[in-house]
Design a protein that fits this description.
The chain has about 180 residues and is mainly α. Helix content is about 40%, strand content about 5%. The protein has 8 helices and 2 strands, in the order αααααββααα. It has a two-stranded antiparallel ribbon with strand order 1-2. Pfam families: UPF0240 (PF06784). InterPro entries: NDUFAF4. Binds calmodulin. Interacts with NDUFAF3. One of its GO terms (cellular component) is mitochondrion.
């Protein structure tokens, strides 16, 4: 309701108000700053002659000037290139399992891919006597401390199925009848 009312007042006598604004005389522009009038003075021949005339005193001073430039010695910042690799990282081929198509082919030494991480965690879970932290660190070029943290904090999922005898069944109760 309020939108209709405001629209009526907004559109009231629109044509007359628009024609009144259009028929007004244009406002006079603000006066220009005196430096803007230099363009008109530049057209005069006296100023052109003054600009194009060579001054011998300035030419002799200019000939005496000699500029010699040297590049400053290059300084290497210690902490400046943290995001850029300072040397080429050594890469190793990944140990691919049955998920070969999903994994990358090369990783830097000291790192592992997702498929490798899942594989080594599963191997350690199934055979912890064979796949010890030392063997995993040697096999995948990792630090022993990082492997110990990996084995401690990351555990692959296990699927457990409960036999039917141990499942608790919800005994249904007969609904009470309303009288």
């Amino acid at each position: 309701m309020g939108g209709r009312l405001t629209r009526v007042f907004r559109n009231f006598n629109v044509e007359n108000r628009a024609s009144r604004e259009i028929s007004k005389e244009k406002p006079t522009p603000a006066p220009r700053h005196p430096t803007a009038r230099l363009d008109a003075m530049a057209d005069s021949p006296e100023i052109k002659d003054e600009v194009l005339r060579k001054d011998d005193r300035f030419l002799t001073l200019l000939k005496e000037v000699y500029v010699e430039s040297r590049d400053p010695p290059v300084r290497v910042k210690d902490g400046g290139g943290e995001h850029l690799p300072s040397k080429q990282q050594e890469k190793r081929l990944t140990k691919l399992g049955h998920l070969e198509a999903l994994d990358v082919k090369q990783v830097p030494k000291g790192k592992i891919s997702i498929v490798e991480a899942l594989t080594l965690l599963n191997n350690h879970k199934l055979q912890p006597q064979i796949w010890t932290a030392e063997k995993i660190a040697a096999e995948y070029s990792l630090e022993l401390k990082e492997v110990n943290c990996l084995l401690e904090f990351f555990i692959p999922f296990t699927v457990q199925e409960f036999p039917k005898e141990t499942k608790k069944a919800i005994k249904s109760q007969k609904p009470k009848q309303l009288t």
